[in-house]
């Protein structure tokens, strides 16, 4: 028995090893400490910020902000002027976590409590500044350029699409920072974790606020390499292997994007996010190569099939706060990259087209059709594999893949329908935000269950609602969100995506009618998955060895409760997010304004058709669960030839290694021998000259 006290927060009573080599501990709590008081204070501040954003977005007269909130002081006026006129705000937002990370790591050497407070406060300030960009974004777009930096210069542009992504990342990072304080007690190297967590945050913010492809690529790579340390954090064999898969795929994706950038710049002379369809329409096969390179490069990070192999490896071994961030926002950055590229480079300008059938939409339509089916296949494989898992985090990882399939499908519809693609665009963006909320909460719930039981196998649990009633309640909220229950956030975005795929076969090819059917079946499979998770973990009889475990305490509940409130709030008033943020974002791209006004503005989410459709999906999901349990369909062992990693990636890896070794063995010695001869001749000549003329 070993006792370790963590500066006023918790005492470790038990030390042993779990399957991945982490310390197994039982936590005991003390009275509220400074960290908890600080969290409560800044959490209240975050709620006030969000309330202020809601109030501000309800009135576009940003110059009257002080009157709206009841302040007329000089300080409030200066704050308004700052929000309206400070053009370097995006750069400041990015630099706070990038600079704050090393400072937090240094503080951690002195006091872990103080470091964790610094992490939460730094993230809160970043969130504050992200939300402070709204007045400028609402009036147009923010643009800031650093000329000549790295040769090409760095550009930052924050439009409404960028703002949605940055605000989602800020909210999620803030709540996970609060949650991580208690959870990271079971992990070593906490200073290193928080350092790379902050750098990853800065990389994500830089990626989504980039004004051109060069800047996006730079921060995308920062995000990739820094997040590797989150995946491989505990340094077990499984973590290192998962980290290797992640970084290999990440490097391949980065090289793919880089090659696409080179081709784009060579043929168009620009990397700015502007419509380029008229310039690339005559490039022949090159334009399709560029689209493939961009979609493949960003698709790796998005977990898109068949580029998903890193994701189910990373989540089970990464610390739960890292899993919540990886699934909650990092994979969305990959989807954001696909969306930003597809609606910028491969679409025409609004002034160049006459309608949906214009020939300039050719590349966009072909690209969109491919992306739709990739999204559908990703949905199906993800939900099927999720149903086969016993490891809770691995199940959630496969559901991240499946839910990314929904988003990718929406992006595909937006690209395929072009001028009439606003429904797919809106559904994809809305589901990015919603998935960030309910999937992060699901990972937090599973993390808390693991923290108390040291068990990830759902089949070995049961009856946890008696020990953790609040956690069970939060799990229900998150499950209702991801399955699309009316009144919770997932219902709105899934309804829009369902309408989008219907439009794909109404305005486009009739084969997408089958895609809509698959969409419905996958939704039922999602319902089945979370019936399975909740019933095995929280219902039934509690195993004897868990009779004396602790329940919920501390700031973890505060963080999870904040996410649950947002899931419910968005679900209750779905039109607010749609009308104030998503539709303004759609209007900045090449979409038909009349289509937006007719089908998206003041959309009736709670219509009879969509509500009754969800009844059938829930009944179908319950039926799949009953049949699956009766006939043991949740333990299917697939043939090895269906394993993409075994049949494709490992042979590819061995081929590259063997080729490299063969090339080295055949040519390296010859090259070395030639170099020796050349150097000998040069040195002899130099010595001769020196002796002769010196």
Which tags fit this structure?
mainly alpha, 694 residues, 3-stranded antiparallel sheet, disordered N terminus, 3 domains, 5 strands
Q: Would you mind describing this structure in some detail?
A:
The structure is a single chain. By secondary structure, the chain is an all-alpha fold. It folds into 3 domains: 31-59 and 70-233, no CATH class; 351-635, no CATH class; 646-693. The protein has helices at residues 34-57, 65-69, 74-85, 89-108, 112-132, 134-139, 160-183, 190-208, 213-231, 237-268, 277-280, 285-302, 311-317, 320-342, 362-387, 392-417, 422-453, 464-467, 469-483, 489-507, 512-538, 555-572, 574-587, 593-599, 608-630, 644-693, and strands at residues 4-6, 10-12, 27-29, 142-146, 154-158. The strands form 2 sheets. Strands 1-2-3 form a 3-stranded antiparallel β-sheet, with no helix packed on it. Strands 4-5 form a two-stranded antiparallel ribbon. Residues 1-30 and 68-72 have low confidence and may be disordered. Residues 210-504 form the NADH:quinone oxidoreductase/Mrp antiporter transmembrane domain.
